[in-house]
Amino acid sequence: MGKRKELAMPKTPKRAGRSPHPNGQFPSQVASANIRSLRALRDLSQEDLAERMRHLRHGWSRATVSEVERGDRNITVDELASLAVALNVAPGELLDPERLGVHLDLGMTGPVRRPLASAWARGLLRITVEGDNYVFEPTLEHLEDSTRLFEWLSMQAKEAR
What value, to the nearest 5°, has the Cα angle with vertex 91 and ends 34 and 69? Predict the structure, then answer.
């Protein structure tokens, strides 16, 4: 049986020369660091994660995992969803900056502060555009679930500090 051929995936773009805001990271950087952290927390080797991704029908190798974790390779939305399955987390956890202690650079005039960015990644907030302003709104439709209510109240308490 021959070696499985992997499709070439574009390297991480240069982001049009942009650097992240101070104390902030781009979502791709946050995802890379969270993938690395969650893999280590689950005591998985890079080869273990690659095998899980192959089982989910992605042609990943250990080298692919390494490139993703270093931020040298983009991941597709399909791969992000499969990584969430492979790491046993919700997809939003891969974009949540809370574990890293950084703010999130979504391209706005400044970074989105960590508590707001974390709540947004977990679906507790949405960001809407009103004219030239970005408005953070709680997603109250999820509050029937007591766990979501607790998370929302916790996020509100963090913001009040």
Answer: 30
